[in-house]
Amino acid sequence: MNKADDSNSSGEEFDSELCELLDRYVEALQSGDLDAKSNLLARHPQLEQLVGCLEQLDSLAIPPPPAAASGDSLKTVASDTANRLTLGATDYVNAEMPRKFGKYELLEELGRGGMGVVYKARQIDLDRVVALKMILASQFASPDEVRRFYAEAKAAGSLKHAHIVGIHEVGQEYGQHYFAMDCIDGPSLAAVLEDGPMEPNAAAKCLVAVAQAVDYLHSHNIIHRDLKPGNILLDNDLQPYVTDFGLAKIFLPDTAQTRTGTIIGTPSYMAPEQAAGRASDVSHASDVYSLGAILYEALSGKAVFKEENPLDTLVQVLEREPVAPSKLNPNVPRALELICLRCLEKDAKKRYASAAELADDLERYLRGEPVLASHADIGQRLRRWIRREPALVSRLFALFVAAAIVQGNYLIVGTDWPYHGRIMAVFGAWALLSFALQQLLNREFHSNLIRFAWIVGDAALLTILLWIAQEPIGPLLIGYPTLIVASGLFFRVRLVVFETVACLASFATLCWLRPQQSDPPEPQHYPFIFAAVLTVIGFVVGYQVFRVRVLSRYFESRRVSL
């Protein structure tokens, strides 16, 4: 390779490294991590030089800040411009408020999320207070972020409803994308619920107004897709207002549809079809589910499903049934609970047909009239119980099948009663232990410790069962790998590892308690082969769970899906 090729190769490596550094710099700007931004500039002079060039280019397009006072030097004004460009406009104006921003005067920051920041501002020409929303680090915003920003303004701009935050203006100032909207003087519903559940009638009245606003959206072919307490603002009279249409889906002939497989929304409040990434199935009923999730939290003080990791929350949304709100708050009326649970049905066809129908049923409750939401029949209750407590149901089903087979064999073949009684006693003890541990889990009493205890109990009782069982017990040894595979359903690597170790220890104990009694004796190395197989199964299951969790963290950090 000649020198020219070496030079081209090194140049490409330099460009690749610089692009990666610039990506990290932009991420630091968007997240507001000024320490990380400063460290990047300090450690990488080439990045600092590139940022300086960008500042010089932006200075040609962006007007300078207001004129300095007579005692200020040109150096101060230049420093002011450089600081605004380096920190990002939103961070800079936040540092020195109140500050003029075009025809607005920024007064205070009201809140910020993953993409935008909202300020309370005074519109100078009309002398009115508005809320001003901007894209974080706007000069580095991606085309997709800018598109979503203007899609939100478009979705809300044409809406005129008493309980929807209205949009006044969309534009740019100093290269900063923004739109002005109604300023609601009051907290969000999420802030109110931090203090605990609402009074049931107050919660019902609030949801009536929100449901009517959402029905208005649906009548204009808009699905919100991100309804949650944080997107409902309350004024001083506690009247609710729906806001944040950044994820709204507008059904127009020229509107590009969200591709299948993309998960959009907030996990704790999204419908199962959203959690599964089935974009084509997202409909008005998806917003009805979100309204039910909001009502659930307003009544119980807790989100219907919420785990530390978004993946665990999504799994619960897809597979679990909610705990009845009255179990968390005994003051919840039965009629209101039925309305809430109907909204949270996994099957969209079983929910309210529209948000207006939900609002009407809530008004019937407030008037003291019978509601449309009915009590679940036996089949529905059974299905809900299976989804709500899958660990208990799976164990009881397995124990029932095994006990039925043992009992059938006893009735047909016959054997000594003491032996049969011992076997059935182990099955009974296993079922009682499962019931007790499930009750502790329902009360969230040291849930992680209970899961580990359940693993130990399963392995110990299986070992006792195999110890007292008659020969041959070879086919029954499949219980150990079954327990390891089942532990993967918790989606926690530590639980899989612990289950594997517990099964290995239990199998070793079994080999010590009952030495080989077969004739002819089995080869001595067979137990070691079985132990090796258990280890491999535990490794494979644990590794798959690890991969799923890594992918979950990746998509969360990149904000691709959540």
- What can be said about the biggest beta sheet? 6 strands, antiparallel
* Low-pLDDT runs: 58-90, 252-261, 558-562
Name of the level-1 CATH class of the largest domain: Mainly Alpha
Order of neighbouring strands in the sheet with most strands: 1-2-3-4-6-5
Structural class, from secondary structure content? alpha+beta
Q: What global shape is seen?
A: flat
C-alpha Rg (nearest Å): 31 Å
- What is the fold-level CATH name, i.e. the topology of the largest domain? Transferase(Phosphotransferase), domain 1
Portion in helices: 55-70%
CATH architecture descriptor of the largest domain: Orthogonal Bundle
Structure description:
It contains 21 helices and ten strands. It has 562 residues and is of the alpha+beta class. The chain has three domains: 62-183, Phosphorylase Kinase, domain 1; 189-384, Transferase(Phosphotransferase) domain 1 (Transferase(Phosphotransferase), domain 1, Orthogonal Bundle), CATH 1.10.510; 389-558, no CATH class. A six-stranded antiparallel β-sheet has the order 1-2-3-4-6-5, sandwiched between helices. A two-stranded antiparallel ribbon has the order 7-10. Helix 8 (200-219) runs antiparallel to helix 14 (355-366). The radius of gyration is 31 Å and the shape is flat. 32% of the residues are buried.
